[in-house]
Amino acid sequence: MVALSTNKVIALGLLLRIGFFLFGIVQDKLSPVKYTDIDYLVFSDAAQYVASDKSPYMRETYRYTPLLAWILLPGTLGGLWEHYGKAVFILCDMLTGILIIKSLQREVIPDTRPSATFFQRNKLPILSAIWILNPMVITISTRGSSESVLSCLIMLAIENLMQGQLFMSAVWLGLSIHFKIYPVIFLPAIMLHLVAKRPSLIRGLSNVPVIGWINSANMLYFVVTLVALALTNFTMYHFYGYEFLYHSYIYHLTRLDHRHNFSLYNTALQAKAAKDYLINKPEGIDVISLVFGNIEKIAFVPQLLLSGIIIPVALARQNLMGCLFIQTLTFVTFNKVITSQYFIWYLIFLPGYLAKSKIIRTEYRLKGFIMIASWVLGQGLWLFYAYRLEFIGENTFNELLIASVIFFITNCWLIGEFISSA
Predict the structure, then answer these.
(1) Residue ranges of the domains in the chain?
(2) What is the rounded distance in angstroms from the CA atom of residue 155 to the CA atom of residue 174?
(3) 354-366: average pLDDT
(4) Gap between the Cα atoms of 166 and 346, Å rounded
(5) CA 137 to CA 218: how far, in whole Å?
(6) pLDDT average, residue stretch 360-375
(7) How far apart are CA 251 and CA 245, in angstroms?
(8) Which of 193, 210, 232, 379 could form a disulfide with 320 if both were Cys (CB 3.0 to 4.6 A apart)?
(9) 200 in helix, strand or coil?
(10) In this model, does residue 113 exceed pLDDT 90?
(11) What span, in angstroms and rounded, lies between the C-alpha atoms of 160 and 156?
(12) CA angle, 147 then 152 then 154, to 5°
């Protein structure tokens, strides 16, 4: 039987990404349906504005940190350089996979017994393949999505943390939060993880919840993370002022995306977005305001309570990688906007979670299969009705609402199973 290795997984992953990238170039030239993500064109246009000493926010729909446009500046040189951004995203994607392997090497001990199963002997490369050989991950980076940059920053933070390099880990986490807000939920989990590393700063109260958890390690981590975030934000604010704050942060707190959205809140956001079209029907506006109100703001309450407080307190000190995975899955499940790209937010932690989970044991294999099938079918049901709505023109809003509820319930069940199997 052919033996697997992480080097083979890495090599195959790189070849697949190169293949997908080249296929995308051909499809973009020959097909009316483009392979390149529309966001990549937005990034590239924003970089062009920066190259002309203008604001990247002159590009409509650019809702990201200016750092991203700065990183992509070489792509403005023309010719083959137009693919520079994709090369950066693919590189970050592969580096994320390598960092996942490094984290797994601390948890996975190869089983060399003659009686060991194929999975037991090859556990490390198989778990690493969840990211490196995942077609969804490969497609997202090769189409020109910037998600891999954030994934890389987060895994750098985790890798440095596991090596005891708290300062650099906190710097990477601060940069991650600058790129997108959601990694802030990892801060309480990491601080709780560090509780056991050093004695409490308040002697005699080490057994008191919250107060007794404070020590020099997690305070250092907290301060450095905030300083790294503040310095980056102040720098961007210096160059671009309020428009940086609005487009990078404020917009995302109040956004009402209601297309391509798996979220339970999708229908509510559609109704809220339709409010402007009911200006001649005051009674319609009153009903929408009463039922949905500020749904885009209220949605954060259960989301942050669960992912930012309850789950870290319950899990972080026992199993950090498992906690980060379940936190992020919960955050995405309760988010008011969910697209396929959001799934890789928690996928980076899945190999680390499975390394310690009993789900991958032989006796739990059937349950694991049912969990995967439930997630895929729930997503497929939503995509089926979304396709009929957008491409065929059928009125499937009611079916989409039901599909969103089913997908939400499925994810809640999965969260419960993951917690019990951590």
Answers:
(1) 1-35+78-145
(2) 13
(3) 86
(4) 22
(5) 32
(6) 88
(7) 8
(8) 193
(9) strand
(10) no
(11) 6
(12) 100
